[in-house]
Structure to design on (140 residues):
């Protein structure tokens, strides 16, 4: 969990600010996963902090809901080109993938439990955050 918090802090994903009057706050929760090696042994423990975006209302809390993902035909084309050129393919795992799109709306999130912030302050998100309605369709 600390690795995830460190990455969010390092990438400057939020500002700590008092919650403006009349603004809605979104909660957050941890998604914990166990990654296994091919032999079934533990590879690593993974923790992702996600927003509880199910409380958001379309046209009030957000305008659109989409995620930029590659089409299957594009992936197949890249694989075909690599095969025809005898290129060696490698697996790529994108960490903190949703931290690359700025938010257009003001969205305030409750800090995770145990995360110390000044009294009365919340996290004003700067980037698209996992489990917000704007990040739906991401496959996370």
């Amino acid at each position: 969990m600390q690795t995830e918090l460190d990455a969010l802090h390092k990438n400057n994903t939020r500002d700590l600010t008092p919650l403006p009057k009349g603004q809605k706050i979104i909660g957050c929760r941890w998604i914990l996963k166990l990654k296994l090696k091919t032999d079934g042994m533990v590879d690593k423990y993974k923790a992702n902090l996600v927003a509880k975006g199910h409380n958001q209302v379309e046209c009030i809390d957000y305008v659109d809901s989409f995620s930029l993902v590659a089409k299957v035909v594009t992936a197949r084309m890249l694989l075909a080109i690599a095969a025809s050129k005898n290129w060696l393919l490698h697996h790529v795992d994108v960490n903190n993938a949703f931290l690359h799109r700025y938010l257009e709306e003001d969205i305030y999130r409750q800090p995770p439990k145990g995360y110390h912030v000044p009294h009365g302050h919340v996290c004003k998100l700067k980037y698209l955050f996992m489990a917000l309605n704007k990040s739906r369709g991401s496959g996370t």
The CA atoms of residues 38 and 113 lie 34 Å apart. Helices lie at 2-10, 72-84. Confidence is low (pLDDT under 50) at residues 133-140.
